[in-house]
Each structure stands twice: as structure tokens, then as C-alpha cells.
């Protein structure tokens, strides 16, 4: 049949058969179902499983990060977050003029993580060489702390040295900032300052006494460290570091150096085993200088013997010898049992004292009260003491500080040994009158003498500039002035300490030469003293010098200790610009020196020229 010009095939038998074969039989399934595979169900099951997993992961993440995150945060922090200290510098110690005596310098300390280091044993030899220690010692130290994460390898070293060690890039090695104490004046101020330990804590001296003031408070911060111990990030500041506070001492660095130099010279000349010197400001009681020998280097404490660390001026107990006689005279004047004009017949140079004798070095015959001090007569002092009651004499000496600490606050200060009068034997009062039978420190003697020079007002000694301690009027000013002028004769012609005289100044002082106690009595070994005040008209300084066990030449205090006093005080008077109080002697010396110079060049010197030559410098000195 032709339809719209196109012939269509007629249906036939074969077409029907094809349609019959293509139609599925009744009750039959698709091939996928007949083979047991349901694609749609499988896809739904997979998608459902993935959805459940996603929900579980989200829930777990929510639990870890929101609901229960603290525990895991703590565990993570324990492995990587550390709280480390922030080092703080110790306060600076200065002298009274602001010159540094002790300062803290930044240094580095090398530390290691033993767990990490022991994983790289091949790097240990190089590390040991860099640290300057034997390899077996390093390995032993790490093995002993194998379960730890921190051990110091080398502390308080120069930053450049620390940088060279860190440049090796050895796993588990790091550094941290610390501070090291440095003492610019070295041995000269060692006994006053003391020193600190490796943790910068005061161990002796004023470093110990004022440790809380100087130390400061270390800070702290949280950081994140990697497995090698290196700081990756600073998390936060826990506590800011507070540096230590500075401390201004009463010590004058210049006078301290003078005392140290002159004491060393005296010990070298006399062959003494040790010595001490103390200089006080009479008006305030401040310690201007305190030196001892042998001494030590506070910058290298371990290189000196332990015995050299002792501050003998405040810890060693010595029998004060004849330095006690001015106080005996003062006690007699106060009690009214003697006067300035009293006479004492010391012939034949000794008097009995129980089973013993009290002897003088010479028979001085009849002495007045001033002569007892000028000639240092043991017999004269004993005669004065006999007129005093035991309790009266005991109480008088205790007012001047004997038998108890001075109150300076120095660690380990000794109180001295001064038995109560109830315990005195029949000979005690007489021996105490000239300095035996009791013990005192050089600082105690200096404090007592400063009171004589301060009109009888005793100040508690202090090592801190401007610190005012307790004061006590222990003697009437008029009596103190009388005793002071008696002591002036000791350094003048006829006295026992002419070598302590200072040109242009009146010097009041007293020598002392005490025998050292030994088993069963006293040995033939001595301690030479000189205690003095200058200038007499208005005392500015009190100084005590003790030379222990001189073995070369003389052992008398005026000879071995007097020159130390003179040389130190000459320098101190010049440094402090103290005007001369003995102008006549100064002018005479200037004129004599000018005449000698003129004679040396062969010129005649008119009298007026000599007088003029001596006058001009005086005007300058008094300005």
C-alpha cells in the first residue's frame, strides 16, 4: 500500500513472531533480580552506612572539641606546652658614692633532654668536646636521668660559648638565660659582700643578709616546644619577672681599697698570719671600710680555702689588750674615784695580782692619769680598777658594747666573751682593766672608740648608707673629751705610737699588744693593735687595726699596726677633704721642707720667704 507516496510493509507472519518472542513470559523476573543482585538496595545500604559514619565522626569531633576537650587538651599540653621561668637580675650593690660593688651579668646555661640525646649516641662525643667534659661523664649523667626531660649540661657560661655549642644542632640540646654575679672590686671587698651560689642566692656576707631584698622574683611563661626542646611559640605570660632592688652600702670604695692595700703591706712586712681593719664614721656609726687578710676572690670562690672566707673583723674573738685602758680611765673619771691630775706610783714596775703579777715593760715611776694612757701602764690601769666596784666596772664596759653583738646585722657576728662580774675570780677585774680576761671583735673595739670620739654617744654600726640604728649616751661628753685628749699624747713624742701620727692633724689613739692564749696560759705569740680617732678637735673617723701573730721584727702594736692607721687615715682625710686641725705642725713641716729644698740647690732662703712658702698652701687646704 502506498501512503503519501511512501510504500509501507504489510504486516506478516514473521513480525508477529518477533513481537511474541520480545514480550516476557507471564511470572518471569529481570535478569539482575534473577541473579540475586539488587542495585538499588545496595546503593541505599552504602549511602546509609556512609551517612552513619559521617554522623559518628561529627559526633566524636563535637565530643572531643566541645563537650569533653579538657582532658585531651591537657594531654597535648603535657607533651608540648611547658611553663618555663623567666630569669630576673639580682639587685646591684653599690658603695656610698654609687660605684658598683656587685652586679649581675646575663649568661647562658646549656641543658639537654636525656631521652632525646640518648637516641643519638653518635653525637655525644662532639657534645662532650664542646662542653669541655669527658665523654664517659656526659654519658653517665644522661644515663642516670634517662627518664627525665631536663638536665643541666653546663651552667652560667658566656653567650658566645653557648652559641658555639648550639651551632652543633644536636637534638635535645638547648639553652636558657640566667644571671651571674660579678664583683668588680674583687678581693678588696670580698668579706663584706660575701658571694652567691650557682642559683644566685646569697651565701655569705651582705649578699646573705640582704638576700630577700636583692633577689627579686622570677617570672614565668608558657611556651610550645618541639620534640627537640626548642621553643616554637610563646603561648602566654604567666607572671612578669620583678628584678631585685639595689642596695647602697655605707662602704667607701676608695677607703676600702686603701685599707686593703696597707693591711697587705703590713702583713708582708711583719710576716703576720692574718689581719683586720675597720673604719667607722664617728658621727653616724656607718662602716666606711672593713678588710681582712687572708682574703679570697668572690668571682672564683672555689679557688680559695674555706678559712679565707671568714670575716675576721666581726667573727674572730681577740683579747683587746691595752686598747681597754682608755675605757678603764673613763670608768674611773665617771665614778669620781680619780681625776685628770691623779698620781699613780707604778714603781717598781709591777704589783701583785693574787698568785700572779701585773707587769709593765718598764718602771715608769709616778704617772698621772694621762701618763697611764701615754705610757700604756698595766700597773696604772690596775690601780684605777681597784678603786671601782666589780658591778660598777662590769656595767660600764657593757654600755660600750662589750659582751653583746653590735647590732650591725652582719651574718655570724660574734658577741664576744665577757663573763658577768658574779663569775669573776679574784684576779679578773685587774686583768680586764688592761684588756685580758675578755674577748671582743675588732668591730666592737671600733664602735667603743667611735663613742669616745662622738661625745660619749654610741651608735649602732651599720653597713647601709643612711640607715640609722639605735643610739645611746654611754658617757658624759666632758669625760669623753678628757679621755680623747689624753689619748692624743699616745701619738706625740714620748707616746707608744708616734708612727701613727699624721702631719697636720691631732691623732688620738691607743696601742695594744696582747699575748695569745694557749693551753694552760699564754704563749709567746702576739696580736698588735692600734685603735685611733682623727682629727681630735672634731673626730671624723675611728679606725682599728689588728695584726695577728707578727713574726718579723717587732710585735708591738704601735710599730706593726700604727703605720697602717697613719697611711689609711692620711688618704681618707684627703679624700673627704677634712681640714687640718694642727696647723702649727703643718706650717713648720712646710717651712722645713722648703728650707731643705733651697739648701739642696745652694740658695739662701730668707726667713720671710720660708714663712710665705708655708702660708700659701694652707689657705688652699682650708678652702
From TrEMBL:
EC number: 3.4.16.4
Any GO BP: proteolysis
Assigned keywords, A-Z: Carboxypeptidase, Cell cycle, Cell division, Cell inner membrane, Cell membrane, Cell shape, Cell wall biogenesis/degradation, Hydrolase, Membrane, Peptidoglycan synthesis, Protease, Septation, Transmembrane, Transmembrane helix
Composition bias, Low complexity: 24-34
SUPFAM superfamilies membership: beta-lactamase/transpeptidase-like, Penicillin binding protein dimerisation domain
Example of a GO MF term: serine-type D-Ala-D-Ala carboxypeptidase activity
Penicillin-binding protein transpeptidase domain location: 275-570
Keyword Plastid: no
Pathway in which the depicted protein is active: Cell wall biogenesis; peptidoglycan biosynthesis
EC top class, as a word: hydrolase
InterPro entries, A to Z: Beta-lactam/transpept, Beta-lactam/transpept-like, FtsI_transpept, PBP_dimer, PBP_dimer_sf, PCN-bd_Tpept
Listed Basic and acidic residues bias regions: 12-23
Region (Disordered) residue spans: 1-34
Subcellular location: Membrane
Residue ranges annotated for the Penicillin-binding protein dimerisation domain, each copy included: 86-234
Keyword Hydrolase appears in the UniProt entry: yes
Active-site residues annotated for this sequence: 322 (acyl-ester intermediate)
Primary role: Catalyzes cross-linking of the peptidoglycan cell wall at the division septum.
PANTHER family (UniProt xref): PEPTIDOGLYCAN D,D-TRANSPEPTIDASE, PEPTIDOGLYCAN D,D-TRANSPEPTIDASE FTSI
Protein name: Peptidoglycan D,D-transpeptidase FtsI
UniProt organism field: Thermomonas carbonis
Lineage: Bacteria, Pseudomonadati, Pseudomonadota, Gammaproteobacteria, Lysobacterales
Gene expressing this chain: ftsI
Amino acid at each position: 500500500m502506498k501512503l503519501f507516496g511512501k510504500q509501507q510493509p504489510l504486516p506478516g507472519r514473521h513480525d508477529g513472531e518477533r513481537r511474541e518472542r520480545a514480550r516476557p513470559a507471564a511470572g518471569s523476573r529481570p535478569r539482575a533480580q534473577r541473579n540475586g543482585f539488587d542495585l538499588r538496595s545496595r546503593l541505599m545500604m552504602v549511602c546509609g552506612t556512609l551517612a552513619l559514619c559521617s554522623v559518628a565522626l561529627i559526633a566524636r569531633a563535637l565530643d572531643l572539641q566541645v563537650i569533653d576537650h579538657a582532658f585531651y587538651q591537657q594531654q597535648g599540653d603535657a607533651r608540648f606546652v611547658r611553663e618555663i621561668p623567666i630569669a630576673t637580675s639580682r639587685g646591684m650593690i653599690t658603695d656610698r658614692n654609687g660605684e658598683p660593688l656587685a652586679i649581675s651579668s646575663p649568661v647562658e646555661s646549656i641543658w639537654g633532654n636525656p631521652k632525646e640525646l640518648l637516641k643519638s649516641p653518635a653525637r655525644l662525643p662532639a657534645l662532650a668536646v664542646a662542653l669541655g667534659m669527658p665523654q664517659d661523664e656526659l654519658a653517665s649523667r644522661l644515663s642516670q636521668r634517662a627518664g627525665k626531660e631536663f638536665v643541666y649540661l653546663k651552667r652560667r657560661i658566656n653567650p658566645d660559648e653557648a652559641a658555639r655549642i648550639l651551632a652543633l644542632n644536636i637534638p635535645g640540646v638547648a639553652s636558657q638565660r640566667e644571671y651571674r654575679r660579678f664583683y668588680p672590686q674583687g678581693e678588696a671587698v670580698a668579706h663584706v659582700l660575701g658571694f652567691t651560689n650557682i642559683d644566685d642566692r646569697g651565701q655569705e656576707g651582705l649578699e646573705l643578709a640582704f638576700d630577700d631584698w636583692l633577689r627579686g622574683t622570677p617570672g614565668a611563661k608558657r611556651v610550645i616546644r618541639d620534640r627537640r626542646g626548642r621553643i616554637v611559640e610563646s603561648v602566654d605570660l604567666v607572671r612578669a619577672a620583678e628584678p631585685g632592688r639595689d642596695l647602697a652600702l655605707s662602704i667607701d670604695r676608695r677607703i676600702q681599697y686603701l685599707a686593703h692595700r696597707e693591711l697587705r703591706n703590713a702583713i708582708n712586712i711583719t710576716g703576720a698570719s692574718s689581719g683586720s681593719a675597720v673604719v667607722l664614721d664617728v658621727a653616724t656609726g656607718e662602716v666606711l671600710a672593713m678588710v681582712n687578710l687572708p682574703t679570697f676572690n668572690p668571682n672564683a670562690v672555689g679557688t680559695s680555702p674555706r678559712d679565707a672566707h671568714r670575716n675576721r673583723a666581726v667573727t674572730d674573738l681577740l683579747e683587746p689588750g691595752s686598747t681597754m685602758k682608755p675605757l678603764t680611765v673613763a670608768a674611773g673619771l665617771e665614778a669620781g674615784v680619780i681625776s685628770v691630775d691623779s698620781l699613780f706610783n707604778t714603781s717598781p714596775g709591777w704589783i701583785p695580782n693574787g698568785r700572779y703579777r701585773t707587769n709593765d715593760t718598764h718602771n715608769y715611776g709616778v704617772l698621772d692619769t694621762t701618763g697611764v694612757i701615754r705610757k700604756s701602764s698595766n700597773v696604772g690601769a690596775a690601780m684605777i680598777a681597784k678603786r671601782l666596784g666589780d658591778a660598777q666596772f662590769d656595767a660600764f664596759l657593757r654600755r660600750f658594747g662589750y659582751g653583746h653583738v653590735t647590732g650591725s646585722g652582719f651574718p655570724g657576728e660574734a658577741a664576744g666573751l665577757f663573763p658577768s662580774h658574779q663569775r669573776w675570780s679574784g684576779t679578773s677585774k685587774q686583768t680586764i682593766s688592761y684588756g685580758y680576761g675578755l674577748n671582743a671583735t675588732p668591730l666592737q673595739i671600733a664602735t667603743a672608740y667611735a663613742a669616745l670620739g662622738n661625745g660619749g654617744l654610741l651608735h649602732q654600726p651599720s653597713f647601709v648608707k643612711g640607715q640609722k640604728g639605735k643610739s645611746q649616751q654611754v658617757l658624759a661628753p666632758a669625760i669623753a673629751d678628757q679621755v680623747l685628749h689624753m689619748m692624743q699624747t699616745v701619738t706625740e713624742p714620748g707616746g707608744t705610737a708616734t708612727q701613727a701620727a699624721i702631719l697636720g692633724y691631732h691623732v688620738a689613739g691607743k696601742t695594744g699588744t696582747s699575748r695569745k692564749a694557749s693551753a694552760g696560759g699564754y704563749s709567746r705569740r702576739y696580736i698588735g693593735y692600734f685603735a685611733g680617732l682623727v682629727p681630735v678637735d672634731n673626730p671624723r673617723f675611728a679606725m682599728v687595726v689588728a695584726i695577728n701573730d707578727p713574726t718579723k721584727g717587732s710585735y708591738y702594736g704601735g710599730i706593726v699596726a700604727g703605720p697602717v692607721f697613719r697611711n689609711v687615715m692620711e688618704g681618707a682625710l684627703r679624700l673627704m677633704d677634712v681640714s687640718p686641725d694642727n696647723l702649727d705642725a703643718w706650717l713648720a713641716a712646710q717651712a722645713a721642707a722648703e728650707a731643705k729644698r733651697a739648701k739642696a740647690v745652694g740658695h739662701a732662703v730668707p726667713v720671710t720667704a720660708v714663712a710665705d712658702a708655708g702660708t700659701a698652701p694652707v689657705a688652699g687646704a682650708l678652702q
